[in-house]
Amino acid sequence: MSIVSDTEVSLETMDHLSKMIHSELGILYERENYYQLENRLKILTEEFGFSSVSEFLNSDPNGLSQKAKTRLLDLSTNNETLFFRDETLFSALKPYIVDRLERFQTSHWNIWSAASSTGQETYSLAMLFENVKRDYPQISYDIFASDISQRVLDYAEKGLYSKIEMDRGLSSDMKTAFFDEDINSPGKFQIKRDLKSHISFEKKNLIESFAGLGPFDLVFCRNVLIYQTVDSKTDVVNRIFDVLKPNGSLVLGSAESMIGLSDRYVTEKIEDCYFYTRGSGKMRAS
Description:
Helices cover 41% and strands 18% of the residues. The chain is of the alpha/beta class. Strands 6-2-1-7-8-10-9 form a seven-stranded mixed beta sheet, sandwiched between helices.
Protein backbone atom coordinates (compact mmCIF):
# COMPACT_ATOMS: atom_id res chain seq x y z
CA MET A 1 0.00 0.00 0.00
CA SER A 2 1.22 3.48 -0.85
CA ILE A 3 1.04 5.93 2.04
CA VAL A 4 0.25 9.49 0.98
CA SER A 5 1.94 12.56 2.40
CA ASP A 6 0.37 13.85 5.60
CA THR A 7 0.87 17.57 5.60
CA GLU A 8 -2.72 17.77 6.80
CA VAL A 9 -1.73 16.32 10.20
CA SER A 10 -1.78 19.33 12.47
CA LEU A 11 1.05 20.54 14.63
CA GLU A 12 -1.38 20.32 17.54
CA THR A 13 -1.84 16.59 16.87
CA MET A 14 1.91 16.04 16.68
CA ASP A 15 2.37 17.99 19.93
CA HIS A 16 -0.28 15.80 21.59
CA LEU A 17 1.40 12.57 20.46
CA SER A 18 4.81 13.86 21.51
CA LYS A 19 3.50 14.69 25.00
CA MET A 20 1.87 11.26 25.30
CA ILE A 21 5.11 9.49 24.36
CA HIS A 22 7.08 11.64 26.80
CA SER A 23 4.61 10.94 29.60
CA GLU A 24 4.68 7.18 29.01
CA LEU A 25 8.36 6.64 28.14
CA GLY A 26 10.31 9.75 29.10
CA ILE A 27 11.36 9.99 25.43
CA LEU A 28 11.06 13.50 24.06
CA TYR A 29 10.37 14.30 20.41
CA GLU A 30 11.26 17.94 19.81
CA ARG A 31 9.43 19.70 16.99
CA GLU A 32 12.52 19.57 14.79
CA ASN A 33 12.37 15.77 15.13
CA TYR A 34 8.69 15.37 14.31
CA TYR A 35 9.72 13.85 10.97
CA GLN A 36 10.92 10.81 12.96
CA LEU A 37 7.56 10.56 14.68
CA GLU A 38 5.80 10.94 11.35
CA ASN A 39 7.86 8.06 9.93
CA ARG A 40 6.68 5.87 12.80
CA LEU A 41 3.08 6.93 12.18
CA LYS A 42 3.45 5.91 8.53
CA ILE A 43 4.58 2.45 9.61
CA LEU A 44 1.52 2.16 11.83
CA THR A 45 -0.75 3.45 9.10
CA GLU A 46 0.36 0.65 6.81
CA GLU A 47 0.21 -1.97 9.55
CA PHE A 48 -3.37 -1.04 10.43
CA GLY A 49 -4.48 -0.90 6.79
CA PHE A 50 -5.12 2.81 6.23
CA SER A 51 -4.13 4.90 3.22
CA SER A 52 -2.92 7.99 5.10
CA VAL A 53 -1.71 8.96 8.54
CA SER A 54 -4.64 11.34 8.93
CA GLU A 55 -7.11 8.56 8.15
CA PHE A 56 -5.38 6.35 10.69
CA LEU A 57 -5.37 9.04 13.40
CA ASN A 58 -9.05 9.90 12.81
CA SER A 59 -10.28 6.32 12.57
CA ASP A 60 -11.47 6.24 16.17
CA PRO A 61 -13.42 9.19 17.61
CA ASN A 62 -11.96 8.39 21.05
CA GLY A 63 -8.39 8.67 19.81
CA LEU A 64 -5.86 5.92 19.27
CA SER A 65 -6.98 2.45 20.29
CA GLN A 66 -5.01 0.77 23.07
CA LYS A 67 -3.49 -1.57 20.49
CA ALA A 68 -2.39 1.34 18.28
CA LYS A 69 -1.07 3.31 21.27
CA THR A 70 0.94 0.32 22.50
CA ARG A 71 2.41 -0.20 19.05
CA LEU A 72 3.29 3.51 18.70
CA LEU A 73 5.08 3.47 22.05
CA ASP A 74 6.95 0.36 20.97
CA LEU A 75 8.06 1.97 17.71
CA SER A 76 9.10 5.15 19.51
CA THR A 77 12.06 3.44 21.14
CA ASN A 78 15.37 3.08 19.32
CA ASN A 79 16.27 -0.61 19.07
CA GLU A 80 19.37 -0.33 16.89
CA THR A 81 22.13 -2.52 18.34
CA LEU A 82 24.84 -5.04 17.53
CA PHE A 83 27.13 -7.46 19.35
CA PHE A 84 30.00 -5.84 21.28
CA ARG A 85 28.81 -2.36 20.30
CA ASP A 86 31.63 0.05 21.17
CA GLU A 87 34.80 -2.04 21.11
CA THR A 88 36.56 0.52 23.32
CA LEU A 89 34.15 -0.17 26.16
CA PHE A 90 34.31 -3.94 25.96
CA SER A 91 38.10 -3.73 25.83
CA ALA A 92 38.04 -1.75 29.10
CA LEU A 93 35.63 -4.12 30.83
CA LYS A 94 38.12 -6.92 31.50
CA PRO A 95 40.61 -4.68 33.38
CA TYR A 96 37.65 -3.13 35.18
CA ILE A 97 36.42 -6.57 36.31
CA VAL A 98 39.92 -7.65 37.35
CA ASP A 99 40.37 -4.38 39.25
CA ARG A 100 37.18 -5.07 41.22
CA LEU A 101 38.27 -8.62 41.92
CA GLU A 102 41.67 -7.53 43.21
CA ARG A 103 40.61 -4.44 45.18
CA PHE A 104 37.18 -5.43 46.49
CA GLN A 105 37.09 -9.23 46.09
CA THR A 106 34.08 -8.91 43.77
CA SER A 107 33.84 -12.47 42.54
CA HIS A 108 30.09 -12.74 41.95
CA TRP A 109 28.68 -10.08 39.66
CA ASN A 110 25.08 -8.95 39.53
CA ILE A 111 24.61 -6.97 36.28
CA TRP A 112 21.74 -5.00 34.80
CA SER A 113 21.46 -4.47 31.05
CA ALA A 114 18.87 -1.71 31.35
CA ALA A 115 17.93 -1.36 27.68
CA SER A 116 18.69 -4.79 26.31
CA SER A 117 16.80 -4.29 23.04
CA THR A 118 17.10 -7.45 20.91
CA GLY A 119 19.70 -8.92 23.25
CA GLN A 120 23.05 -8.30 21.62
CA GLU A 121 24.35 -6.17 24.50
CA THR A 122 23.20 -8.69 27.10
CA TYR A 123 24.74 -11.68 25.38
CA SER A 124 27.94 -9.72 24.67
CA LEU A 125 28.29 -9.12 28.42
CA ALA A 126 27.77 -12.81 29.11
CA MET A 127 30.35 -13.80 26.49
CA LEU A 128 32.85 -11.35 27.93
CA PHE A 129 32.41 -12.75 31.44
CA GLU A 130 32.84 -16.28 30.10
CA ASN A 131 36.15 -15.21 28.55
CA VAL A 132 37.28 -13.53 31.78
CA LYS A 133 36.46 -16.74 33.68
CA ARG A 134 39.12 -18.59 31.69
CA ASP A 135 41.78 -16.61 33.58
CA TYR A 136 39.77 -16.03 36.76
CA PRO A 137 37.61 -19.13 37.31
CA GLN A 138 36.39 -17.83 40.69
CA ILE A 139 34.23 -15.25 38.91
CA SER A 140 30.51 -15.88 38.45
CA TYR A 141 27.72 -13.65 37.18
CA ASP A 142 24.00 -13.11 36.69
CA ILE A 143 22.51 -10.63 34.24
CA PHE A 144 19.12 -8.96 34.51
CA ALA A 145 18.04 -7.82 31.04
CA SER A 146 15.20 -5.33 30.68
CA ASP A 147 13.58 -3.23 28.00
CA ILE A 148 10.42 -1.16 27.67
CA SER A 149 9.44 -3.04 24.49
CA GLN A 150 7.99 -6.49 25.02
CA ARG A 151 8.51 -7.18 21.31
CA VAL A 152 12.29 -6.79 21.40
CA LEU A 153 12.50 -8.43 24.82
CA ASP A 154 10.80 -11.54 23.44
CA TYR A 155 13.28 -11.51 20.56
CA ALA A 156 16.20 -11.23 23.00
CA GLU A 157 14.93 -14.02 25.21
CA LYS A 158 14.60 -16.32 22.23
CA GLY A 159 18.32 -15.80 21.50
CA LEU A 160 18.00 -16.75 17.82
CA TYR A 161 20.01 -14.69 15.34
CA SER A 162 20.65 -14.61 11.61
CA LYS A 163 24.12 -14.79 10.08
CA ILE A 164 23.84 -11.10 9.17
CA GLU A 165 23.14 -10.19 12.81
CA MET A 166 26.00 -12.35 14.03
CA ASP A 167 28.42 -10.86 11.52
CA ARG A 168 27.80 -7.49 13.16
CA GLY A 169 30.35 -7.73 15.96
CA LEU A 170 31.12 -11.44 16.44
CA SER A 171 34.37 -13.17 15.53
CA SER A 172 34.38 -16.71 14.14
CA ASP A 173 35.66 -17.99 17.48
CA MET A 174 32.78 -16.31 19.33
CA LYS A 175 30.23 -17.79 16.95
CA THR A 176 31.65 -21.28 17.42
CA ALA A 177 31.98 -21.01 21.20
CA PHE A 178 28.58 -19.56 22.03
CA PHE A 179 26.12 -20.48 19.26
CA ASP A 180 24.63 -23.60 17.74
CA GLU A 181 23.06 -23.73 14.29
CA ASP A 182 19.31 -24.08 14.73
CA ILE A 183 18.03 -27.17 12.90
CA ASN A 184 14.48 -25.79 12.89
CA SER A 185 15.43 -22.39 11.47
CA PRO A 186 17.84 -22.69 8.53
CA GLY A 187 20.37 -19.89 8.43
CA LYS A 188 19.82 -18.96 12.08
CA PHE A 189 21.89 -19.60 15.16
CA GLN A 190 20.87 -20.21 18.76
CA ILE A 191 22.63 -18.91 21.86
CA LYS A 192 23.90 -21.91 23.83
CA ARG A 193 21.81 -22.89 26.82
CA ASP A 194 24.68 -22.64 29.32
CA LEU A 195 25.27 -18.99 28.44
CA LYS A 196 21.58 -18.17 28.47
CA SER A 197 21.15 -19.72 31.93
CA HIS A 198 22.89 -16.70 33.47
CA ILE A 199 20.29 -14.25 32.13
CA SER A 200 16.75 -13.29 33.16
CA PHE A 201 14.47 -11.02 31.10
CA GLU A 202 11.77 -8.61 32.25
CA LYS A 203 9.88 -5.64 30.82
CA LYS A 204 10.89 -2.45 32.62
CA ASN A 205 10.20 1.24 32.03
CA LEU A 206 13.11 3.35 33.29
CA ILE A 207 10.85 6.20 34.36
CA GLU A 208 9.04 3.88 36.76
CA SER A 209 10.15 2.63 40.20
CA PHE A 210 13.20 0.39 40.57
CA ALA A 211 11.81 -1.12 43.78
CA GLY A 212 12.86 -4.74 44.11
CA LEU A 213 15.80 -4.42 41.74
CA GLY A 214 19.44 -4.92 42.61
CA PRO A 215 21.72 -4.30 44.21
CA PHE A 216 23.98 -4.35 41.15
CA ASP A 217 27.72 -4.39 40.64
CA LEU A 218 27.38 -3.01 37.12
CA VAL A 219 24.56 -1.28 35.23
CA PHE A 220 24.64 -0.74 31.48
CA CYS A 221 22.28 2.08 30.49
CA ARG A 222 23.68 3.05 27.11
CA ASN A 223 22.19 5.25 24.42
CA VAL A 224 18.86 5.57 26.22
CA LEU A 225 19.00 8.82 28.16
CA ILE A 226 19.97 10.86 25.09
CA TYR A 227 16.29 10.80 24.11
CA GLN A 228 15.08 12.17 27.45
CA THR A 229 14.92 15.59 29.08
CA VAL A 230 17.59 16.70 31.55
CA ASP A 231 15.14 16.30 34.44
CA SER A 232 14.31 12.76 33.36
CA LYS A 233 17.98 11.87 32.90
CA THR A 234 18.79 13.23 36.34
CA ASP A 235 16.00 11.22 37.92
CA VAL A 236 17.05 7.97 36.22
CA VAL A 237 20.78 8.20 37.04
CA ASN A 238 20.05 9.06 40.68
CA ARG A 239 17.69 6.11 41.04
CA ILE A 240 20.28 3.84 39.41
CA PHE A 241 22.78 5.09 42.01
CA ASP A 242 20.42 3.83 44.70
CA VAL A 243 20.40 0.27 43.29
CA LEU A 244 24.18 0.04 42.91
CA LYS A 245 26.33 -1.81 45.41
CA PRO A 246 29.18 0.10 47.04
CA ASN A 247 31.87 0.39 44.33
CA GLY A 248 29.33 -0.65 41.71
CA SER A 249 29.29 1.35 38.49
CA LEU A 250 27.00 2.77 35.84
CA VAL A 251 28.06 2.72 32.19
CA LEU A 252 26.52 5.22 29.77
CA GLY A 253 26.84 5.39 25.99
CA SER A 254 30.04 6.75 24.45
CA ALA A 255 28.27 10.00 23.48
CA GLU A 256 26.65 10.43 26.91
CA SER A 257 28.00 12.10 30.03
CA MET A 258 27.15 12.55 33.70
CA ILE A 259 27.94 16.28 33.47
CA GLY A 260 25.06 18.33 34.82
CA LEU A 261 23.09 15.27 35.96
CA SER A 262 24.44 14.09 39.31
CA ASP A 263 27.34 14.72 41.66
CA ARG A 264 26.80 11.50 43.60
CA TYR A 265 29.05 9.39 41.39
CA VAL A 266 32.82 9.08 41.35
CA THR A 267 34.17 9.06 37.80
CA GLU A 268 36.71 6.34 37.01
CA LYS A 269 38.56 6.19 33.71
CA ILE A 270 39.86 2.82 32.59
CA GLU A 271 41.60 2.87 29.23
CA ASP A 272 39.38 5.27 27.25
CA CYS A 273 36.10 4.53 29.03
CA TYR A 274 34.30 6.16 31.93
CA PHE A 275 32.65 4.23 34.74
CA TYR A 276 30.40 6.18 37.10
CA THR A 277 30.81 4.60 40.50
CA ARG A 278 28.94 4.59 43.78
CA GLY A 279 31.58 5.11 46.41
CA SER A 280 34.42 7.44 47.29
CA GLY A 281 37.91 7.76 45.96
CA LYS A 282 40.01 9.43 43.32
CA MET A 283 39.66 9.09 39.60
CA ARG A 284 41.49 6.05 38.36
CA ALA A 285 43.46 6.42 35.14
CA SER A 286 45.36 3.77 33.21
